[in-house]
Amino acid sequence: MKMKKTILSCLLALGFLTASAQDQQPKTEYVFNPHWYVQIQPLGIQHTLGEIDFSDLNSYNVQAAVGRQFNPVVGARLAVNAWQSKAGSKLNGQTYKWDWKYVAPSIDATANLSNLFCGFNPNRVFNFGVFAGLGLNIGFSNDEAPKKKDLMNQTIGVNSLEYCWSGTKARLFGQAGITGDFKISDAISVGLELSANTLSDRYNSKKAGNWDWYFNALAGVKINLGETYTTREIPVPEPEIRYVEKIVEKIVEKPVPTPAAAAVAEVEPLRRDIFFLINKTNIRPSEAQKVKDIADYLNEHPTAKVVITGYADAGTGNNKINDRLAAGRADAVVKSLKKDYGIAASRISYDSKGSRVQPFAENDMNRVSVCIAE
User: Which of 53, 293, 330, 342 sits in a 20 to 30 Å window from 286, CA-based?
Assistant: First the structure.
């Protein structure tokens, strides 16, 4: 009867482990790929600050850009904005208006705030971002401003265009803005961009004692070049079946081992998981006792050896960073065993898996060195 109960317990345990293994599925993770993109924004409106009616200071503009996304958050682009700016004055009840052409190349740093705060997700429908940069505004065809200046001098005797210019003028400008992109496919998204631009007081020909400003609203399409991401599967850790094997051994008839063989069989492997802080490879005082446990085990069993495997969590960093962290975590345990406890190098084997293998289901627990001595 006792033998039947033991067999039944063994079968139930095996069934539980099988069911658990079937429930756990490999986790799919998205891996960001640095990539180039082009951006075409043919629908734009510019508004130049001034004292005449709002609608009189609006003009059409366009923009094209090529950029590079270095990681899920940070990128850079070279953009060229162009078309027309407007200005005007109101004097003695009369409104005077003029416009001119410009081309404004700029270099901008970009940041994807959706990825920064919510994590990288290539299936996200909407991405919100910001940008800031510097450029050169090249103005030309300012032919109307001198005519308006002469007209004001003749009719009201006032020269309000003290900075009136002609020919071609190049002026540095700074800009900052926000972006919103709606994903159409992995390669294409449509979006809206709003920016504020500031430059020399001489831009609109009027002397105001402060910098001139204009604001752009642009809509267009963004086309990614090449694959923006790949996928990888994080394998499910294999279930511990060592305890089930012990139960099986109890019900299998074996010859009685000699005293020496029994002594060897009673030696259990020792496992210690030494956990690290994010982006760190040093052993914390709270984890140092685990290294001592391994050293004590090796000293107690002169023929035993230890295998140390370093890992990094897949939720942060990239493969290059995580490979370095995992190797550093394994190396820290190896050095402690040799330097602090005098364990011979011949008894230590070590490896690192980076973040390609995740021994634990909880992300933060994978900042670890798994040490098995036997």
Answer: 342
